[in-house]
Amino acid sequence: MSEIAAPAKPRRNIEAVLLLLALAVGVGANMLVGLDEDRAFDSDFWIQGGTLVGLVLAFHFVLRFRAKYADPVILPLVTALNGIGLAMIHRLDIAEGSDAADRQLLWSTVAVAAAIGVLFLIKDHRILRRYTYISLIVSAVLLLLPLTPLGLTINGARIWISVGGGTFQPGEIAKITLAIFFAGYLSANRDLILLAGRKVGPLQLPRFKDMGPMMAAWAVSIGVLVFQRDLGSSILFFGLFMAMIYVATSRVSWVLIGLALIGAGGLVAVQLFSHVALRIDSWLNAFDPEVIDRVPGGSFQVVNGLFGLASGGMTGTGLGQGRPDLVTYANSDMIIAALGEELGLIGLFAIVLMYVLLVSRGFRAALGTRDGFGKLLACGLSFTIALQCFVVIGGVTRLIPLTGLTTPFMSAGGSSLLANWIIVALLLLISDAARRPAATGLPVNMQPALAAPGEATGKTYRKGRNEVTGA
To answer: How far is the C-alpha of 26 from the C-alpha of 363, rounded, in Å?
Structure first.
């Protein structure tokens, strides 16, 4: 007799309990900042705390109606990270006399509203597969915008555009549209890509004509590096494609070819472009006195961040009691150094663990969903967050050259915050589809396999490990 699958539970009440803990972390951090600066429970505290509570509770109630089977851990993790980031930016505002926390709070509101909009507009994530090539066109437009008269060059990188008196980074949205394109292309052409090519030793190399998407991704990443002078985005875009094609094909040969292309492009860039050579030199010789004070391309920012991390030790100086304001761009590029100084190695490990849990829940959603497009999209979006964290933390700790990427959900920056909250909404939609009970009374080993809208012409049923298709 076939076993009947136990009904899935929404787990929204568990999410509500975890949200209370996450809000206690974020609002509590802001409270500690005020206590240490003799500004406890001032108007900034109530506005920032009240807004954060209202935003996440609104998101939570929307999930109860639009995606009630979504993962219950993702939203609390993001809430805690966003709250800690707001608290640290507010702490730096007090030291520097700036108002970046107010702008970050405004962007948090816009980002959460956009994520809620995604939940209402996209009922089923598989609908996005229809827009595979439209996503490619949108990605190209977004990446080219900074090279138009709208583009702005800030700190040597041309990755921003001027919008209404402010700045916006189109590449942050492009990473989402590129993930949608890659997921749609690879899920539709996986069998073609897997066709046997030449075998060299233990490696099965792909056919040359099947390497077109990889070469295009390599060209895009090199183009971003050359024309926009942004090493971080270049690594992110190509790494996204490499991760997704490996998930789709499970072939190590693609990874090795990708690494060879990145290595070759990097060597050429170092020889031809001075800004790349200066970035590498400031990484390798960071403590050289001549390199520290060099303008441009000096290592003063990295060295100061390392001294800040060292002064924090294991337990940190305490929120509001360190000097993270001595580090350039402490509230954006170097916020990890600021948090490491005041929360210590233990606090920094806790933050890294939250990112690890967030990424793992995204991969869990990918494993649970029953359509190839959803699996690839969830893997790509989750890997984007993981790679961005690695590049940022690696640059701050001098494991790799410092880049201009922001720490997801924590660094000051509206475009990054907006893009990452949209990623959260998409992951929640995919996890809802993965955990939602099938709309049929069939036993679990005969439930319909999901397909993208308009993709299947018949009904496909799973029976054991075999699939049976009917007209």
So the answer is: 25
